[in-house]
Amino acid sequence: MIIKIYENLCKGIKGCGNCIEVCPKKLFINSGNLNKKGYILPKIVDPNQCIHCKKCELICPEMAISVLEESG
Length: 72
Prior knowledge:
The structure is a single chain. The chain has one domain: Alpha-Beta Plaits (2-Layer Sandwich), CATH 3.30.70.20. 19% of the residues lie in helices and 28% in strands. The chain is built from 3 helices and 4 strands; from the N terminus they run βααββαβ. The strands form 2 sheets. A two-stranded antiparallel ribbon has the order 1-4. It has a two-stranded antiparallel sheet with strand order 2-3. The mean pLDDT is 90.
């Protein structure tokens, strides 16, 4: 699985931080990096620990996160 954060859509910590709060494995943290709109982006700590629950994808009000299957 691949966790994709669409930086241009994300309103990060300043906007909500829902992905950080909802992840049962605590895979998201505050990155300290800003997107073009000035919002702090979340960072994925260890994508290999993802249990594919897609809670981050479902709770994001901006639809800025996708949990995708790897092709190959």
